TrEMBL record:
Residues of the 4Fe-4S ferredoxin-type domain: 1-29, 31-64
Protein name, UniProt field: YfhL family 4Fe-4S dicluster ferredoxin
Pfam family, one: Fer4
Keyword Transport: yes
UniProt GO MF annotations: 4 iron, 4 sulfur cluster binding; metal ion binding
KW Electron transport (keyword) present: yes
Keywords from the UniProt entry: 4Fe-4S, Electron transport, Iron, Iron-sulfur, Metal-binding, Repeat, Transport
GO CC annotations on file: cytoplasm
Organism from which the protein derives: Psychrobacter frigidicola
């Protein structure tokens, strides 16, 4: 499943450059994750880099975008053209 950033986000800007798919951007109040681009770093890393680097632990799985590891790998291949 894709990830999401909760309202506990402190806008520290460490997650955006860590995302290999450019799925994270500045929203109106907090950073946001585009579920169409989020692969939880599958295909790039062993674990989601935004979750690893987030100092306030505000990036859980998005229950509205449930995806299997296979779904995420297919999305990775579509995004990267591999």
């Amino acid at each position: 499943m894709a990830l999401l950033i909760t309202d506990e986000c402190i806008n520290c800007d460490v997650c955006e450059p860590a995302c290999p798919n450019d799925a994270i951007s500045e929203g109106d109040d907090i950073y946001v994750i585009d579920p169409d681009l989020c692969t939880e770093c599958i295909g790039h890393f062993d674990e989601p880099q935004c979750v690893v680097i987030c100092p306030v632990d505000c990036i859980p799985h998005d229950p509205n975008h449930v995806e299997t590891e296979s779904d995420l790998m297919s999305k990775y291949k579509r995004i990267t053209g591999q």
